[in-house]
Design a protein that fits this description.
This is Dolichol phosphate-mannose biosynthesis regulatory protein. The chain has 92 residues and is mainly alpha-helical. Helices cover 66% and strands 7% of the residues. The protein has one domain.
């Protein structure tokens, strides 16, 4: 069976992707920035608070980017059709 996705929820998808990118940046970038700042001269180090704000920035930007992408998809799907995929019931 072929199915088409006719609508993507901008808010829900934005929330999920924003939280996932924030969590990923917290695990990857915060330790990396803390490690790098330990070897920088004290005058050039970024403030500790700015390092902790990186995940917040990723959350907001990830949410906005996915929300805009979903809204554009919802407009385009009316004219060009949705993403199409095949599906089957398990055991058949």
């Amino acid at each position: 069976m072929k199915y088409q996705i006719t609508r993507l929820s901008p808010h829900q998808n934005g929330k999920v992707c924003g939280i996932l990118t924030a969590a990923t940046s917290f695990v990857v970038f915060v330790p990396f920035l803390l490690f790098i700042s330990a070897y920088m001269p004290e005058d050039d180090r970024p403030p500790f608070l700015s390092i902790l704000l990186v995940p917040l920035f990723y959350l907001v930007m990830g949410y906005i980017a996915v929300m805009v992408g979903c809204a554009l998809y919802n407009v385009a799907v009316k004219y060009i059709g949705g993403v199409e995929y095949d599906a089957k019931e398990e055991g058949r």
